[in-house]
C-alpha cells in the first residue's frame, strides 16, 4: 500500500474549500520525489534522509498501531507537496484505554501562504481526531501562531515542559 | 513475553537509590492483578477497563514500533505496583528521521510519597530517553510540579495548546 494510512478514513474530513488545483490525501511513499522532505525543511532541520531511510521510516509508521496520520496537500499542476500536517495517536490505559492525539509538523510552502492551507489542514486533522475518538488533542507552536490555532478549538496551556539533547 | 519492553534496556538506567523492598521494571501483563489500574486511578479517570481490555491494549503497546516504555515500581513485600511512568516515542522524518520522546502518566501511590519514587522514575526515564537517542523530551504536569520536573532538565514552555472532547 502506497498510503501511510487509509485514504477512506480521511475523505469525510476534507473541507470543501480546497482550491481545484490542490489535492489533500495521506502521505504516499513516492512523496519523497514530490518535495515532502524539502517542505519539512521549511519547518525545521531534516538533515540527511535519503530515499532508503525515508522509505524505511515510512514503512515503520505505516505499520505502527495506531498508524501515523500524515496528511499532505499536493499541487496537481506541479506535482509538488505544498503542505503537510500529522495527527499522531498515543494509546493509553487511562480514559477507558483511550487514545490521546497530537497535531505535529504543520507546514505550508512559503510560496503558498495566504491561501488558508494551514486552516484546511487543521480543520481536517481536528475532525479526523474527533472521529477517531481521541479524548484530547494538543500541539506545540511558535508564540505568533497561538491565535491561529485557537480558531480550531485549542487553548493555550502553560503546564508543559521540554528539554533538548 | 510478559514485559511491555525489554527489561535489559532499562537496567543501565535504574538509580542505585531505590529502597531494597522496591523493584523497578517494565510493566508486565499480570500487573493488572497487582493494582496497576488502581494506581493510575490516583492520577486521572481510568473507567471500565477489564482484564481482557487491559491485555489487548498491553499487546498493542508491546508490539508497537517504537514500543511503549512503561516503567513500574513494585513493592515486593505487598506485590503491589506503587509507582509508574511512561516514556513514549514518536517517529519523525525531521531531525534525520529521529525520535521525539514524551514522559507520560507519572504517578506514585499516595501512601508511598516522600520516598523520592517520583525522582527515581524521572531519572530513569530521562536516562533511558537519552540512550534511545531522542532529540527532545517533553511532559505535561500540574503547575505545582513544574519545580519538581525542572530538577531533571525540563524547562517550562508555554507554546503549547490543548483541547478536550
UniProtKB/TrEMBL annotation, chains A, B:
Top-rank taxon of the source lineage equals Eukaryota
Pfam assignment, any one: Acetyltransf_1
Look up the record and name the pathway of this protein. Nucleotide-sugar biosynthesis; UDP-N-acetyl-alpha-D-glucosamine biosynthesis; N-acetyl-alpha-D-glucosamine 1-phosphate from alpha-D-glucosamine 6-phosphate (route I): step 1/2
Query: Which terms in the Gene Ontology molecular function aspect does this entry carry?
Result: glucosamine 6-phosphate N-acetyltransferase activity
UniProt catalytic activity: D-glucosamine 6-phosphate + acetyl-CoA = N-acetyl-D-glucosamine 6-phosphate + CoA + H(+)
Keywords for this protein: Acyltransferase, Transferase
The protein depicted here goes by the name Glucosamine 6-phosphate N-acetyltransferase
**N-acetyltransferase domain spans which residues?**
22-165
State the top-level EC class: transferase
What is one process in the GO biological process aspect for this record?
UDP-N-acetylglucosamine biosynthetic process
Q: Which InterPro entries match?
A: Acyl_CoA_acyltransferase, GNAT_dom, GNPNAT1-like
Q: By its UniProt entry, which PROSITE patterns does this protein fall under?
A: GNAT (PS51186)
What EC number(s) would the UniProt record show?
2.3.1.4
Stated family: Belongs to the acetyltransferase family. GNA1 subfamily.
